[in-house]
Design a protein that fits this description.
6-stranded mixed beta sheet; 7 helices; alpha+beta; Molybdopterin biosynthesis moeA protein, domain 3
């Protein structure tokens, strides 16, 4: 049986990033650059004022004081028509181009304008050449590499691309992730369950986790515990980049998923991980067939069989399926990274496997603090509503004192 780290290593070795596509900036948030971005402009494109005030020549100012003749007013979007000479100033607004001859801007708060004489008096406490202005190309120069391959696009990267006029960008596309819940006990969420039935909450939960991870969920509904129906649903799911099943991977009489995956050619990488909850988790790969080698279907597909209990599904998705999705998207740091946090209260841990316990992670003046929530096991989804993370307790029975340091994995 693999450890969690060994299972993650197998996943990351097996998963290959998806091909690049060209997409609009509006659809690129959270995606990863497939090509280096080279600036085709200077930023700013001209010397610009950073303040409302007066553009001046610092040689005209003595001990922060001067009386200068105002020769022009420039607002953002307009260009100066006059060059400053000795004893002259230009009224200027934030973002407007600096007139020729000027080498600083005095803030409006440090000036007093006399309309009768058309002059401005300066009373600056400190003024040096370059004050309150930004020279052309300070932030970015034409021909400069701005964003490297592999950079995840956040709002600020998208803003920089927009500033450069790049309305489209080459990125690794979002993976499609099919979700298939299995089990005769399941009914759709809009249906009232009969005795012995439960609603298919895992599909909704997993689809949300997929979206939060950057993937595009494809919901396939429910597969019954019957070979032909399950195989039909699996075949549809394998048209996506990733297929995530919940249920049917343990050792029960109707746990048919591993055998049906093998029957359609999915190669098992591992089955069972030393973890609580989620021990029966399954991972495999469907390699493209030789018959498909000349078509668009030559991509490798990935399959996760998650346990049916909802907290097991949730935990295994966050650790394993999410890592695969992030690797497919081209993210180098695909595996989850823990936060080191102090335990907020005494806790008694029990179990022969490392336990990923739903917990509440908060920050105070001393740093991150984690408190396990009251949790009744892998079927207790309600407990996760109170949590925003999972605290890792190593295998074995032990009493943990408040203040001890734990690895904590955030959900948000």
């Amino acid at each position: 049986m693999l450890t969690v780290d060994e299972a993650l290593a197998e996943i990351l070795r097996s998963v290959r990033p998806l091909p690049a596509v060209c997409t609009s900036l509006g659809d690129a948030l959270g995606l990863v650059l497939a090509e280096e971005v080279i600036s085709e402009t200077d930023s700013p494109p001209f010397d610009k004022s950073l303040m409302d005030g007066y553009a001046i020549r610092t040689t005209d100012v003595v001990d922060g004081a001067a009386t200068l003749k105002v020769i022009e007013e420039i607002t953002a979007g307009f260009v100066p028509t006059k060059t400053l000479g000795p004893g002259e100033a230009t009224r200027i607004m934030t973002g407007a181009p600096i007139p020729g001859g000027a080498d600083a801007v005095v803030r409006i708060e440090e000036t007093e304008f006399d309309a009768d004489s058309g002059t401005v008096q300066l009373r600056s406490s400190s003024l040096a050449a370059g004050a309150n202005l930004m020279r052309r190309g300070t932030a970015m120069k034409w021909g400069e590499g701005v964003l490297p391959v592999g950079r995840e696009l956040r709002p600020q990267e998208l803003g920089a691309l927009a500033e450069m006029g790049q309305h489209e960008v080459a990125v690794i596309r979002r993976p499609s992730v099919a979700v298939l819940a299995t089990g005769d006990e399941l009914v759709p969420i809009h249906q009232t369950p009969d005795h012995g039935q439960i609603r298919n909450s895992n599909e909704t939960m997993l689809a949300a986790q997929i979206r939060r991870s950057g993937g595009e969920p494809v919901c396939l509904g429910i597969a019954r515990d019957e070979q032909s129906h399950l195989r039909e649903k699996i075949s549809v799911g394998l048209q996506s980049d990733v297929l995530v099943l919940s249920g049917g991977v343990s050792a029960g009489k109707l746990d048919l998923v591993p055998a049906e995956l093998e029957a359609v050619g999915v190669r098992q990488i591992f089955h069972k991980v030393h973890i609580k909850p989620g021990k029966p988790v399954w991972f495999g790969v469907l390699d493209p067939s030789r018959e498909d080698s000349s078509t668009a279907e030559t991509r490798r597909r990935y399959v996760f069989g998650l346990p049916g209990n909802p907290v097991s599904s949730m935990v295994c998705f966050e650790l394993f399926a999410r890592s695969a999705i992030r690797r497919l998207m081209g993210l180098e740091e695909a595996a989850p990274r823990p936060v080191r946090a102090r335990l907020g209260e005494e806790y008694l841990a029990r179990g022969d496997r490392p336990t990923y316990h739903p917990a509440r992670l908060d920050w105070n003046d001393a740093g991150p603090v984690v408190c396990p929530v009251n949790w009744h096991g892998s079927a207790d989804l309600r407990a996760t509503v109170k949590a925003n993370a999972m605290a890792l307790f190593p295998a074995g029975d032990a009493k943990y004192a408040a203040g001890e340091i734990l690895d904590v994995y955030r959900w948000d």
